Amino acid sequence: MPLEILVVLVVLGVGGVVVATWWLGWAKAARLTDGAGAARQFNLDYPELRVASVAMSEDQSAALLKLETADVVGLVFAFGDKFVTRRLTPALLRTINIEQNDTVVRVSLRLADITAPEIDLVYTPGNYAQSVEALLAALQTAREAA
Amino acid sequence: MMDAMFKFPSVTQMAVPLFIAAMLVEILIARYRGTARYETRDTLASLVMGVGSIVAGMLIGFIAFRALFYFYQFRIFDLEMSAWVFAVCFVLDDLRYYWFHRFSHRIRWAWAAHVNHHTSQHYNLSTALRQTWTGVLTGMFVLSVPLVLLGFHPGLIAFANGFNLVYQFWIHTEVIKRLPKWFEAVFNTPSHHRVHHATNARYLDANYAGTLIIWDRLFGSFVAEDDRTVLKYGIVQNLATFNPLKIAFHEWINMLRDAARPGLALRHRAAYLFAPPGWSHDNSRRTSASIKAEFARRHPDQAGTPGLPALGPTS
């Protein structure tokens, strides 16, 4: 097949297929339904780790999970219309950055992961104080001990 | 001698219109019957990987050809071009593909190139085109040397391999559930290949076949799809990027970083390159074997069934 025709076919084909999926509404991001849904997603990848509690972000795009037995925290976040999970071990977690104002607390996790270098989770101050602060403190302690 | 290979057309390039038409049909089926799923950015990433694979083949594919032509001068037989020679070449190349594929899942050096194909959490026809850019660099083309020494022309081998790859395109779908029993017994099918792309413990490292599933049955890697199990596609630790460059090179970078860590023994560095994916010197990571063993421990009633190890005496 002549290269010119191949290039035209590929460009039109790729464009046509991608536009079709977008036009049909298949570009929407996934959202976690609730804490149980977040735990279920996490356990699909880590069935051996039991989830004690879930701190869901305000937009339900991500959640931090307190685990019962391990000295690590779980993370679930939306990726396209699917989800990705990570065990936040001291080796994986590079930094935790927290920005807070009167209405929101933004938690930015920088990971040693080339495909997921930074994950942001947004909480209300009340939710943050109740369920996230202690988790992050435990993570920080584990990092310092490692 | 080099010119002879240009008599063989590029099967995969000729199949491009078929690929596009089939994806559009599958999208229509997904829309109206819901038996397939697409996601826009995932699809774009897969298709860009496919285009990149063609470009990479044009840029560095000659390395494999040159090497195989070197060995062709030492061939034992002078095989003429005929339908029978092609048929035998196709079957032997399919056997070669089986071992290439098996090694690509069991040796991290080869997995670094092949993992790209498994990085989508979707399983549709676009996933078939999420192909490697770096396969030639692994040197796995040496597995074709026995065929060349038997007298199969490198161009004919590439031609047969092209048909094999085109065959594998249509099996990347959830639209087709099961085909007639005789076909499922002999050929690789959507059902068999869904198992291969699934990360459920039972299904890890199973069904490496290209066209003929008989190789898996023969070499003990066949696992049948269980309709009661919801398949989870992707890799054990899924990627969180649609960036084709990161998809193509992430495992090379991770592997080389691991092997270059300070303070490791030489055997540990070598193991980071050539041991199965997930191996680590401190056992802090999971391999497919450890995932299967853990699953069998938690589900002793399923231990020893296809795809899962039996429980040990101390379990």
Report on the architecture of this protein.
- The complex is a heterodimer of chains A (146) and B (315).
- With 146 residues, chain A is α+β, with helices and mostly antiparallel strands.
- Chain A has helices at residues 3-23, 35-45, 125-145, and strands spanning 51-56, 62-67, 73-79, 82-88, 93-100, 105-111, 118-123.
- In chain A, strand 5 (93-100) and strand 6 form a beta hairpin.
- In chain B, helix 4 (83-106) crosses helix 5 (108-114) and helix 12 packs antiparallel against helix 13.
- Chain B is 53% helix and 0% strand.
- Chain A binds chain B through residues 1, 6, 9-10, 12-14, 16-18, 20-22, 24, 26-27, 44-45, 47-48, 77, 79-82, 84-86, 89, 91, 113-116, and chain B through 9-10, 13-14, 16-17, 19-20, 23-24, 27, 30-31, 37-44, 47-48, 51, 54, 121-122, 126, 232, 234, 236-243, 246, 250, 253-254, 284, 294-295, 298.
Low-confidence runs of at least 5 consecutive residues of chain B: 1-6
Which of globular, elongated, flat, extended, rod-shaped describes the shape of chain A? Answer: elongated
Proportion of strand residues of chain B? under 5%
Query: Helix/strand/pairing class of chain A, anyone?
Result: alpha+beta
In short:
With 146 residues, chain A is an alpha+beta fold. Chain A is 36% helix and 32% strand.
Helix and strand topology:
The complex is a heterodimer of chains A (146) and B (315).
Chain A: H1 3-23, H2 35-45, E1 51-56, E2 62-67, E3 73-79, E4 82-88, E5 93-100, E6 105-111, E7 118-123, H3 125-145
Antiparallel strand pairs in A: 1-2, 2-3, 3-4, 5-6, 6-7
Chain B: H1 11-14, H2 16-33, H3 40-72, H4 83-106, H5 108-114, H6 125-128, H7 145-150, H8 154-169, H9 181-186, H10 190-197, H11 214-219, H12 244-259, H13 266-274, H14 288-298
